[in-house]
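Input (structure):
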């Protein structure tokens, strides 16, 4: 990649004169590392999740406010084609009032076992059994980024894992967690209802990150076979949206233009192009031919972060929005531990428009 300067530690990065840093470490380390970087005066891009406790989220919010630096969560789902589409429809008022939404992230541990082993080393079972609701942003962000409403109350149920010699054993993992699947029902600030599923032990193939949203005037429904826009009878017939969401393989970004030293993804389950619904006109010309992944999100993630750092305008997945993606999951897991008790979800407020308004 032509990178000539490296740093041996996070401390060394903090002591350097660089402007920004991106965190791609083990997911339970993100919160404290983000705070350290912000307090050192660096802009921060963080892979998900942002933190695994309310205290960590609060600390990041405080560090952003005091340092006046950009924090952006690398939440891919914000840029997924179906989420972009629903956001446009919602802003047009096409849904009417939101009635109910559901989103889910199905990621069976057997499919991610090698990743878990790399993250955790020889004692990987201690860290791989993280509560599913401690990794909820792929699901929650789909709903919250469309409607703008946030979650206020939750009741959650946990599924006790059926495989004893595994990561989801409260006597093995550091979280004392035995739930491999968690399903939560939320009350939203706009009065609607939302269901979120985070499953890590599930026999499932196909679209593992999906959303459906139902309004008083129209609805969007997504399933393994495709996506549809539905309006009331007599208004408009059901419209299939698959052509808007899937890229033409012959026109994928990077085909025939592979950059030297960069390999395009071979995983067909996550395309590296952009979909017709994506506004690629906003991207720099220099991005053409670069690898892309997670349903077309990577190029937009990079662009939003760099633009925010140089302009001072907060990115879509800023710390206040990111907190609304994460805090509900933390409280949901606590609810599951209490047998589904209805609990209130704390909120850190709306984001300012820019760094200068902090």
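Output (sequence):
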């Amino acid at each position: 990649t032509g990178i000539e300067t490296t740093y041996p530690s996070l401390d060394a990065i903090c002591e350097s004169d660089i402007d920004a840093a991106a965190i791609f470490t083990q997911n339970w380390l993100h919160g404290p590392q983000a705070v350290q970087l912000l307090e050192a005066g660096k802009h921060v891009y963080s892979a998900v999740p942002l933190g695994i406790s309310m205290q960590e989220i609060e600390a990041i919010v405080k560090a952003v406010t005091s340092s006046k630096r950009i924090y952006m969560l690398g939440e891919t789902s914000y840029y997924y084609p179906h989420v972009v589409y629903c956001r446009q429809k919602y802003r047009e008022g096409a849904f009417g009032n939101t009635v109910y939404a559901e989103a889910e992230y199905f990621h069976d541990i057997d499919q991610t076992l090698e990743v878990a082993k790399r993250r955790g080393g020889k004692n990987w079972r201690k860290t791989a059994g993280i509560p599913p609701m401690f990794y909820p942003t792929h699901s929650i962000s789909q709903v919250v980024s469309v409607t703008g409403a946030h979650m206020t109350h939750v009741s959650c149920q946990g599924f006790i894992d059926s495989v004893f010699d595994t990561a989801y054993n409260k006597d093995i993992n550091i979280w004392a967690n035995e739930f491999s699947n968690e399903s939560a029902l939320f009350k939203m600030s706009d009065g609607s209802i939302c269901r979120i599923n985070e499953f890590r032990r599930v026999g499932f193939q196909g679209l593992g990150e999906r959303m459906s949203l139902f309004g008083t005037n129209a609805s969007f429904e997504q399933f393994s076979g495709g996506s549809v826009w539905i309006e009331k009878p007599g208004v408009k017939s059901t419209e299939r949206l698959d052509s808007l969401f899937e890229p033409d393989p012959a026109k994928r970004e990077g085909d025939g233009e592979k950059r030297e030293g960069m390999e395009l993804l071979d995983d067909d389950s996550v395309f590296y192009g952009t979909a017709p619904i994506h506004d690629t006109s906003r991207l720099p010309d220099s991005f053409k031919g670069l690898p892309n992944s997670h349903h077309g999100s990577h190029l937009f993630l990079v662009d939003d972060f760099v633009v925010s750092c140089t302009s001072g305008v907060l990115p879509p997945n800023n710390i206040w929005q990111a907190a609304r993606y994460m805090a509900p999951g933390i409280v949901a897991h606590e609810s599951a531990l209490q047998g589904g008790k209805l609990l209130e979800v704390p909120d850190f407020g709306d984001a300012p428009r820019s760094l200068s308004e902090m």
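Notes: The first helix runs from residue 10 to 15. Confidence is low (pLDDT under 50) at residues 250-270.
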